[in-house]
Amino acid sequence: MSEQDATTADIGPDPLIDADQRPNALLQVRDVTKVYGTGHTAVTALQTATMSVEQGEFVALVGPSGSGKTTLISIIGGLLAPTTGSVHIGDIDVTALSRKELTRFRAERVGFVFQSANLVPFLTARENLLYVAGLIGSSKSVARARADQLLEELGLADRAKNLPEQLSGGERQRVAIGRALMNDPDLVLVDEPTAALDTALGRQVVQLLGREVKDRGKTGIMVTHDLRMVEYTDRVFQILDGHLTHVESSTGAGH
Amino acid sequence: MNTSMMLATAEIRRGRGRFASVVSALALIVFLVLVLGALADGLFFGATGAVRSTTANAYAFSSDAEGSLVRSRLDISDVEKFAQVPGVDSAGPVGVLLTGGEGPEGELDLAVFGISMGAAGTPNTLVSGRIPEPGEVGVALADQQLDQFGVRIGTTVSVGGNSAEIVGIVSDTSYQLQPTIWTSIDTWRAMRDAVRPELSGEATQINAVALTTSADLGDIAAAVDGTNVLTAEATGLAIPGVEQQNATLNSIIYTTLAVSALVVALFFALLVLEKRELFASLKALGTPTSRLGWAVIIQAVVSSVLGVIIGSIVAQLFGLVIPASVPTLFRPETLITIGVFTVIAGFVGALFSLRRIARIDPATAIGGAL
Fold first, then answer.
1. Residues B272 and B351 placed together within one structural domain of the fold
2. Residues B281 and B217 occupy one common structural domain
3. Of A140, A173, A224, B166, which residue is 20 to 30 A from B74 by alpha carbon distance?
């Protein structure tokens, strides 16, 4: 689908889709369907999902396990190709990129925060940040300065030389946030960030994420099954059995 | 490449324990292969020195001898015939006698070579002393290895009551793992007749003719009836057991090197299996598969190089304590060859992991546990 189609499709709201349409939003997900398998073993994981998220917005994607939220965020992050539909980030049509281009796209434009941090166990906190800078060929001195600054801002300055095993769960997740922000991406995708943390720590991490996304003008999407965490997000999308709906009820970030 | 190096070296530095296992396995293999190589070299050099360390580059045999010095029977008059063949610069008689003898400190096992001093077939590895004059009788050259039995310049070695004074020491001239003495064809014949009286009638018999030549060996053999001619190298290989030993030991060595490739392949296959989740997340973060592959290759090469270094140090130390009676020879050439092959084996072993790495799906980095 071209840019032109994307804009004209906005004029008349699609009655089938209860998701808002924001023509100038940074992230545009249009009619994304994902079907696994073929014939009568085919399973539709995602049914014509449409969503837009603006720059500086931090939204939650909630739903029970198996609902399709992992599929959706993987498609947005360029890890999975949709069966039909398109994903645009700014002027990039993610669904049109080759595998090689997707690898580059993820390194440059997307910051991932995984469930259990998934830091490189044999690299220090600082090196974990420098690693992703190396992927896009940043100059060493610039990368070092940025890594130190990020670690400082995330309250990890004195943990920079520690290996992940020497860090607490919360600290690891903060390093993962630093890594996600390291290459100054457009999009920050967060997958169940509180899965390995207790409630209090989980709240701190999500609050920090929300603040970083907003302050830095990123577009953030957090997948969570924990409804207590949505209070730190701007809006909430829900997925049930592959159907994406926009729920109005977020109390807004920071409350 | 930069990020590959970072991943590869940081993991080795911070996971020394686990890499120590593959490095020690490789070091043991390298040690084993080097000792086998030293044994192969020792046996080869010990068996063939007498035909390698001389001025001859070819040997003529009786055609029924199949290149065996001891089996060959020629006549002293053949030397002159070979010398007449165009392209032959020098021809000299060779008489061989495997026997026991008497040295300054008692009995010795010896190979006595009768030659015409200065002609083709004279040892060219003089360490000290002098080469006897042509026609000089009652004198001999002795191999350095006889030093351990007290044989030195000025001492006497006798065979069957015929004694020869040692006037020069040569090196690397063993024949069939026996130390040698080199004397005139007449002194050799006197010794032969004393220990093998049944041959005493054959006053003109010699074993072979040593040649220094640039002519075609087939043409030379054709010029003298009932002879065939082999290069010095082929003569060495025709010594009974030499080729078989080489083939056996080399096949053990190359099989063992293949095992080292398998060890590396298995180790890194396990390591990659264990790091599936990490590699998936690194791919999700935008790491191209090639960089993860390079990281594994770098680790395999670094492990192999460390294995080669440690293994060769251990092998050298082992070489110092090995009894002198075991024919081993540690040659830098063999060390370099085995080292290079081990590193190549490590590299090849790592290649087996590449497909596994390529198959890891970055999408599995998301949504794992829940």
1. yes
2. no
3. B166
Q: Is residue A255 domain-resident?
A: no
Let me know whether B278 and B306 are in one domain: yes
Q: What is the domain range of residue A190?
A: 3-247
**Cα–Cα distance, B110 to B116 (Å, whole number):** 19
Number of CB pairs, chain A paired with chain B, less than 8 A apart: 94
**pLDDT digits 0-9 by tens, B308-339:** 999 999 999 999 998 877 888 899 999 999 99
Residue B234 included in any domain: no
CB A58 within 8 A of CB A253: yes
Question: Which residues on B lie below 8 Å from A114 (Cβ)?
Answer: 281, 284, 365-366
What is the tally of structural domains in chain B? 2
Q: Residues B220, B312: one domain?
A: no
Q: What angle do CA B200, B227, B220 make, to 5 degrees?
A: 130
Distance from CA of A236 to the nearest CA of B (A): 19
Q: Choosing among A75, A101, A106, which should be mutated to test the B contact, i.e. which has the most B CBs within 10 A?
A: A106
B13 CB neighbours in chain A (<8 A) are 122
The amino acid sitting at B193 is D
Contact B281 A192 (CB under 8 A): no
**From the list A74, A105, A192, which residue is nearest B370 (CB)?**
A192
CATH number at residue A183: 3.40.50.300
| Nearest-CA distance A160 → chain B (Å) | 15
Chain A contact set for B277 (CB, 8 A) = 118
pLDDT of residue A40: 87
Residue B146 near residue B215 (C-beta atoms within 8 A):
no
B158 in the same domain as B39: no
Is A253 inside a domain boundary?
Answer: no
Query: For B36-68, how does the pLDDT look when each residue is reduced to its tens digit (9 = 90+)?
Result: 999 999 999 999 999 999 999 999 999 998 888
The reported pTM is 0.82
CA–CA min distance B277, chain A (Å): 8
The ipTM value here is 0.87
pLDDT at residue A10 tops 50 = no
B363 touches chain A (CB under 8 A): yes
Q: Which of B17, B27, B1, B6 is nearest to B271 (CA)?
A: B17
CA distance B304 to B298: 10
Question: pLDDT tens across A125-145, in order?
Answer: 999 999 999 999 989 999 999
In a domain, A197, yes or no: yes
What is the least distance, in Å, from the CA of B284 to any CA of chain A? 7
A171 vs A156: CA distance, rounded Å: 7
pLDDT digits (tens, 9 = 90+) for A17-54: 444 567 678 999 999 999 998 888 899 999 999 999 99
Range of the domain at B285: 2-47+243-365
Q: Pick the residue with more confidence: A80 or B240?
A: A80
Task: Please count the structural domains in chain A.
Answer: 1
| B256 lies in the same domain as B323 | yes
- Are residues B287 and B167 part of one domain? no
8 Å CB contact of B286 and A103: yes
User: CA nearest B276 in A: which residue?
Assistant: A118
* Model confidence band, residue B224 (pLDDT cutoffs 50, 70, 90): very high
Give a yes or no: residue B54 inside a domain. Answer: no
Report the C-alpha gap between A231 and B60 in whole angstroms. 100
Tokens of B27: 């070091």
Same-domain pairing of B298 and B176: no
